[in-house]
Amino acid sequence: MYKFNYISFANLAEQKNILGEIVVMSTSLDAFKNEIEKTEKEKAWFALYTKPRNELKAAEQMQKAGINFYLPTVTKLKQWSDRKKKITEPLIRGYIFIFANEKERIISLEQNSIIRCVADNGKPAKIPNWQIENLKKLLQAKTELFIKEGLVAGTKVLIKSGPFEGVVGVIQQNENENTIAVLIDLLNRSIIAHIPKDSEFEKIKD
Questions:
Q1: What is the mean pLDDT of the chain?
Q2: Distances from the Cα of 135 to the Cαs of 75, 168, 205, in angstroms?
């Protein structure tokens, strides 16, 4: 005996409406994802020049504004006559980095801790992603760092072993020590660290 399932026109119409809503929701979700991807592609790293001693304040303001930022810091032990204290200081004084689109960059400039965006030929200058990631890798080694104004000259290498593995920089070798310098071209700064003498590295082309 055959059994038939009957669907009324009303039920069919209702199912079509539900399916239609699902399609619309799916389309809207795809559009939303595409918009996010487009926005992310439009983002780039910029360097902002802060007011004197306002780097940490700038970081707080960027966080409140919902802007992706990077403020490299170092911890130092300060000695006073009666006590010692560990304090956190900006690695590169006077600057904070943001990963932003144009709208977010404008919002960042409205913060009272910021003076201006670093420019090149009158236009906001973008920092290559790899330079920021390279700086982050250097700081992960948690070693003493030195800042030098100007770009250190030398052989460009990729560190293959040790605490600085994966870091790209300019190596300088002498009898007593080896150093690696990570360059931030836009700021004309070199961040220098001592590396173990037995660190393996390979030369790379620019």
A1: 86
A2: 16, 9, 19
Helix residue spans in the chain (DSSP H): 9-42, 55-65, 102-109, 129-140
* Domain region containing 78: 43-127
| pLDDT tens-place string over residues 123-172 | 999 999 999 999 999 999 888 899 999 999 989 999 999 999 999 999 98
CATH number of the domain within which 111 lies? 3.30.70.940
Strands (E), 71-149: 73-79, 84-90, 95-100, 114-117, 119-120, 123-124, 126-127, 145-149
Residues of the chain with pLDDT under 70: 1-40, 206
Spatial contact of 100 and 44, defined as CB atoms under 8 Å apart: yes
Find out whether 76 and 118 touch, Cβ atoms under 8 Å: no
0.85 exceeded by pTM = no
The CATH number of the domain where 206 resides is what?
A: 2.30.30
- The answer to whether residues 117 and 124 touch, using CB atoms and an 8 Å cutoff, is yes
**Rg for the chain, CA atoms, rounded:** 26
